């Protein structure tokens, strides 16, 4: 193509130099100018100018394509005549062209210099229908839509508007309108591709209608934005006026800038919509107030409290079960069942992270490690830890906060604890939940119902904040010594885990591994003082009596203080404390032996009682005074239920006295005095029924009660033994006092699963179903009566479920 190329006509196919346009569509009979930057396009223009040749202009489908092929170009373009070129630089040429005729692209060839297109003329069909009624209707619709377009878009030049408004030629309008209106190049190309006049007009009407709808929406958005900007400018102007007025009045505080600071702080937090609206109103109120007013100070305190909460701040749980188990074993000795329960909870949370927060209640005597194990759980899972004590709280406002109408109002304990932890998902310990009280100021336990309910606490509302706060991710752990004083609706929301009393061996290991090293470090005597194993056992047996180890720690600290004096005065460099040294340091043994039957006494039976600090031995004494009036005397601060048990025991003995060689005449006239020692301590409950009956039968029959037997159980009028509670604590008391045999109700055998293994090895538990079995096992029978009883027992068949051997056989059955 080095010589002049003429348009060759071979079967109506022409070959012309071509330019692929980016985002531009040319129509016939229209003039357009554009810039050319690609080397092949510049070469095509220069060749066409040099050879006085027309050029084929066609749009490419993707504007990013650098070297287009036939598939990258649309099917229709325009043959154009170059009117003028202006070389801006070596790499940029400005071109002015005029479209001549529509043509169809057959193929495009690319050599090293330029693109050459094989095209075929493609005139618009249906020109003869331009004077039809349908064409006239489409032209009218087009002009009507164009007038609407002008009202929405005033950026068109006057010449374009004039040419469209004054011309009614459908052919002219079908090419001039899309060429000069601001349509997308894909829409313009769709009109150029349409081969009929009526189809082109119809597409143009549809396109202009859609464009008017888009422009109307854009105008509406623009007007709303302008209105908002005008409002902001107005607010800014008014605030500036207020600032100047405040300066003229010598105001101390510029509350406007303070309000802006609060507003920026609020926008930086992840707050729920209700909180944003509430705090926004308070900030606006603050901006309109004098800085030194009392109300402004109240609002500042409120905003500081609300914005200081850890909105959206969460810690990631570390649910490594192995690591958690190692931490629990390192920080706590024993408590195997408690640790297993906690690890199970962590395992479930690991498998289902979306599980709602469980409410755990740790129940046990004082000093067994409830608070410390809660702190260990927080360490295990990597959560922040906060503690709030509920002991003695009797005002509902301490839980839910005070309303801001009161002077000195403040948030409740829960929100304060969250603020202290600086996390939305801390471990929150509610200590001593069983010590809550209620009075005329409300019921704090009822106020806790919402906070401890996983279905409600997502929108917990503190009275002071008055905005919803999400507590659903908080892990609540509560502690209690006694479940009886916790209201049933509140207890129903908690998963109860019981912590038992410690055995003698467990106390020794806790003292050796934890308490002694801790006290040696805190007293600065590491490596200088040692307490031998016998010394620790001596402290446990002779100077403490408790379910936990808190008093034991104080005794260890007392011993170390005595040693510190010797070390500080230079009397010794190293000290070793054994059991024989304790009396010299601490004085005589402080634990006095309890009063109970130790010598197979008549009229004294060893019972077992449950207290909030563990189990205790509860001896029952009975004395019969002959030649009396038949009255019954009950002493020892007995409650109503225990007095009723005593009356049941007397009635049973009157009916069954002959079986135990009791003279009914003596029983009728004698006065009976029943007493429970430690009379200053109130006692109540039905579980002393078997003890009362045994002591009464022993006193009336003269048969001693075995000193190595303790018993517990409720009785009925016909002598049946009913189950009781607190077996674990009662068995620990028997073990501590060296009791070898414990008589328990038969229905309590399943509760032995919770009893410590060390206790079950040292104590034999005998299940009883009626008082006859209890009396046979507890009384020291005369030889003849014992032989007679054995012969009757051998002759009679054993009833189903009746105990006839050691406890191991019962459990296996």
What does this structure look like?
GO terms for molecular function: serine-type endopeptidase activity. ATP binds at residues 364-371. Belongs to the peptidase S16 family. With 813 residues, this protein is of the alpha/beta class. It folds into six domains: 14-121, LON domain-like (Archaeosine Trna-guanine Transglycosylase, Chain: A, domain 4, Roll), CATH 2.30.130; 127-218, Up-down Bundle (Methane Monooxygenase Hydroxylase, Chain G, domain 1); 251-307, no CATH class; 321-498, Rossmann fold (3-Layer(aba) Sandwich), CATH 3.40.50.300; 504-586, Helicase, Ruva Protein, domain 3 (Orthogonal Bundle); 604-812, Ribosomal Protein S5, domain 2 (2-Layer Sandwich), CATH 3.30.230.10. The strands form six sheets. A seven-stranded mixed sheet has the order 18-19-17-16-20-23-24. Strands 1-3-4-5-6 form a five-stranded mixed beta barrel. The protein has a five-stranded parallel sheet with strand order 8-9-12-7-13, with helices on both faces. Strand 5 (92-110) and strand 6 (115-121) form a beta hairpin. Mean pLDDT is 84; it is low at 1-10 and 784-813.
């Amino acid at each position: 193509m080095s010589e002049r190329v003429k348009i060759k006509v071979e079967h109506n196919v022409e070959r012309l130099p071509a330019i692929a346009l980016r985002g531009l569509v040319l129509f016939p009979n229209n003039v357009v100018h554009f810039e050319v930057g690609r080397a092949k396009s510049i070469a095509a223009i220069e060749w066409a100018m040099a050879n006085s040749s027309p050029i084929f202009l066609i749009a490419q489908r993707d504007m990013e394509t650098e070297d287009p092929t036939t598939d990258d170009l649309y099917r229709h373009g325009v043959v154009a005549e170059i009117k003028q070129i202006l070389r801006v630089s070596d790499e940029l040429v400005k071109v002015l062209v005029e479209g001549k005729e529509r043509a169809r692209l057959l193929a495009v060839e690319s050599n090293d210099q330029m693109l050459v297109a094989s095209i075929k003329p493609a005139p618009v069909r249906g020109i003869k229908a331009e004077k039809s009624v349908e064409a006239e209707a489409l032209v009218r619709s087009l002009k009507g839509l164009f007038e609407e377009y002008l009202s929405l878009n005033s950026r068109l030049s006057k010449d374009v508007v004039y040419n469209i408004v004054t011309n009614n030629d459908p052919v002219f309008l079908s090419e001039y309108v899309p060429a000069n209106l601001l349509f997308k190049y894909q829409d313009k190309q769709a009109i150029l591709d349409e081969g009929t006049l009526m189809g082109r007009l119809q597409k143009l009407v549809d396109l202009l209608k859609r464009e008017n709808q888009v422009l109307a929406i854009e105008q509406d958005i623009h007007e709303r934005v302008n209105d908002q900007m005008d409002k902001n400018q107005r607010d800014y102007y008014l605030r500036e006026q207020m600032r100047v007025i405040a300066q003229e009045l010598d105001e101390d505080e510029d509350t406007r800038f303070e309000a802006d600071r609060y507003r920026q702080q609020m926008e930086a937090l992840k707050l729920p919509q209700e909180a944003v609206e509430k705090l926004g109103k308070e900030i606006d109120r603050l901006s309109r107030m004098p800085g030194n007013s009392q109300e402004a100070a109240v609002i500042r305190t409120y905003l500081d409290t609300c914005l200081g909460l850890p909105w959206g701040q969460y810690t990631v749980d570390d649910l490594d079960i192995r690591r958690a188990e190692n931490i629990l074993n390192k920080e706590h000795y024993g408590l195997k069942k408690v640790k297993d329960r906690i690890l199970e909870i962590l395992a479930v949370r690991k498998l289902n992270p979306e599980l709602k927060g469980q409410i755990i209640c740790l129940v046990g005597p004082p000093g067994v490690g409830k608070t410390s194990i809660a702190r260990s759980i927080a360490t295990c899972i990597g959560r922040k830890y906060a503690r709030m004590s509920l002991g003695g709280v009797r005002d509902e406002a301490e839980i839910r906060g005070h309303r801001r109408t009161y002077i000195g109002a403040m948030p409740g304990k829960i929100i304060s604890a969250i603020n202290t932890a600086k996390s939305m998902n801390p471990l929150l310990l509610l200590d001593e939940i069983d010590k809550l009280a209620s009075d005329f100021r409300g019921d704090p336990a009822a106020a806790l119902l919402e906070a401890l309910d996983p279905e409600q606490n997502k929108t917990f509302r503190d009275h002071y904040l008055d905005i919803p706060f999400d507590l659903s991710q908080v892990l609540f752990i509560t502690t209690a010594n006694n479940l009886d004083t916790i209201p049933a609706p509140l207890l129903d929301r908690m998963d109860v885990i019981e912590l038992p009393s410690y055995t003698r061996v467990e106390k020794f290991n806790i003292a050796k591994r934890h308490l002694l090293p801790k006290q040696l470090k805190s007293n600065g005597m590491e490596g200088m003082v040692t307490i031998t194993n016998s010394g620790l056992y001596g402290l446990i047996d002779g100077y403490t009596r408790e379910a936990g180890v808190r008093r034991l720690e104080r005794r260890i600290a007392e011993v170390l203080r005595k040693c510190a004096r010797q070390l500080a005065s230079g009397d010794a460099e190293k000290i070793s404390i054994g059991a024989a040294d304790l009396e010299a340091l601490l004085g005589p043994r402080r634990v006095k032996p309890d009063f109970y039957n130790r010598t197979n006494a008549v009229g004294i039976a060893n019972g077992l009682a449950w207290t909030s600090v563990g189990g205790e031995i509860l001896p029952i004494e009975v004395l019969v005074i002959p030649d009396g009036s038949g009255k019954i005397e009950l002493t020892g601060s007995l409650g109503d239920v225990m007095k009723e048990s005593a009356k049941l025991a007397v009635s049973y003995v009157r009916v069954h006295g002959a079986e135990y060689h009791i003279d009914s005449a003596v029983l009728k006239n004698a006065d009976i005095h029943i007493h429970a020692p430690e009379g200053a301590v109130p006692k109540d409950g039905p579980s002393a029924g078997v003890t009362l009956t045994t002591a009464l039968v022993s006193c009336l029959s003269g048969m001693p009660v075995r000193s190595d037997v303790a018993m517990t159980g409720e009785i009925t009028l016909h002598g049946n033994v009913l189950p009781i509670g607190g077996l674990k604590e009662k068995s620990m008391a028997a073990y501590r006092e060296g009791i070898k045999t414990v008589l328990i109700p038969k229905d309590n055998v399943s509760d032995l699963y919770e009893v410590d293994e060390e206790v079950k090895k040292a104590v034999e538990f005998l299940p009883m179903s009626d008082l006859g079995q209890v009396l046979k096992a507890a009384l020291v029978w005369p030889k003849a009566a014992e032989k007679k009883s054995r012969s009757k027992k051998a002759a009679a068949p054993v009833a189903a479920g009746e105990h006839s051997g050691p406890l191991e056989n019962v459990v296996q059955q």
